């Protein structure tokens, strides 16, 4: 290694090579390799170049340098430029000289040496304290910037006997605080196996302790549209300084979450009272579980359905999307994932804060997972009522997970069910259970290549558009809020990515038929920036489509453990199939579906074939149907057959009805070109029997 010592005295005077040479000799005597360097740390480039010349690379450096000024009180002291230059500026210059070398080789370990005087302050050492705490701030930022390059930076505050401390410590204490009791920590932090990064450690006399910041829960002391007064601060001072259930922020993002939450709530509430924060970090699960939130209502028209579809990326560029974008479409429908919109009011309107025994710091709440299940296709207008219940509260150690079940009704009929899984950072450790049978579990995808991949671009204004569906969090629109949350720009809503992925599955495996949609479960992993492309990977396992969603540009997974459950073809109910159809033939296929449910096994034995139907209107395909009387107990579903049908018929809606009602002979329709057939034409005789006998109108 390189041993750097300018050889000055403790006040910065003089110069000698003796100190560095002595250490080099000790290292070599024990079989090590060492080279001395006598430059000032302000000549960081020279110091690093010595290492490169001697060893060809720079992998680790331990920065321990400095001066102690004569201890005088602050009133008699003006900050010494030399102290700042050696400790703080020297640290910066040596780091700058080594930084690119470490980044390029994808490895580096940096150890800064701070001091208890910098951490706690010390009488007579204002200059030294300022420099040492400055080194800690430098190290913390280096740890963040170097992480992705495997360059780690930690800080130690040692208490050890040295040339610097022998002037301020009794001789017997200096003797007992040997540097040998500090060196092992430095060696471990330098080791390639050590993954510690951004840590601060006090060390001495064989003892090592790690430090971290602690912060009180704090208190809001202002009201909306009113001035904040010193009297309000005074009145709440005890609560501001109360460290009961203190939080331990470790990043700027965590530190700023309190302000982000307060400002966000100021935007959405008429008033934030002095006692509106949830002071207790640990939810009292025994009291909260089973508690019901106030019911919420949601009135909407087709406008909200269309706005939501646009918000999750649907476009008139795709003809298949028109049924979700145009209220005049003959099969106008509401996207299934619109089901999260009426239920999210329970989360957005502060309902959780009203639950007895569930005290939440909303600055620490993250949306972790989401489950949605539909019991019938969503209406395109109406009034829905949602009832929310705390299903369970789990103790995850580092935080608490709250399971919120929301049932949404149209009149007295259950339409959909949502389970919000929210993670409350820092609220764990209250002795609760870690798992719950009530939780809708996420499921990893199969370990094989996906069966289908869809890539879809979001727009720069995707979040601005999606928020119009009811999620008004400024984090998704206001750059200043995003910056306070640690983001370079406003981020996309997680439920917007959720909507993108769901419609990818709906198109790929259900022919955009919302009646086929049963449920979706996702776990939110990372945010998406508006303008990035979403890549949805899909694996078909029976009626379950496993999905994983990534940002194409970065390959970062944003939705994991996710799946969409589809109704099997045999489950396609006539009620579902006739929702907004607009075709006369819909009623016939609905009747066929009923008959297959009743006599499917018998029909499979008689027919043993798969029939495909393409129904046209105004010269364009308006609907596709598959009648499977070959597999299992038979089935009917709207959409093309996933394999190859034995025979496929193409006919207009009007001519189909003429044939079914016996007004037109099928053979005559075939020879006149009204009925087109592909595949085994002889099978049409068996299908004719089904239509005549069972599709009575």
| Unreliable residue runs | 67-79, 267-284, 570-581
DSSP summary: helix tally: 23
Biggest pleated sheet:
10 strands, antiparallel
Structural class: alpha+beta
Proportion of strand residues: 15-25%
Distance between the amino and carboxyl termini? 92 Å
What is the 3D shape? elongated
Helix content: 25-40%
What is the average of the pLDDT values?
81
Tell me how many strands there are: 22
Radius of gyration, in angstroms, nearest whole number = 35 Å
Strand order of the largest sheet: 8-10-11-12-9-14-17-16-15-13
Give an overview in words.
The chain is of the alpha+beta class. It is 32% helix and 23% strand. Helix 2 packs parallel to helix 3 and helix 3 (81-105) packs parallel to helix 5 (126-146). The longest helix has 25 residues, at 81-105. The chain is elongated, with a radius of gyration of 35 Å. The termini are far apart. 38% of the residues are buried.
Summarize the structure.
Helix content is about 30%, strand content about 25%. By secondary structure, it is α+β, with helices and mostly antiparallel strands. About 5% of the residues have low confidence.
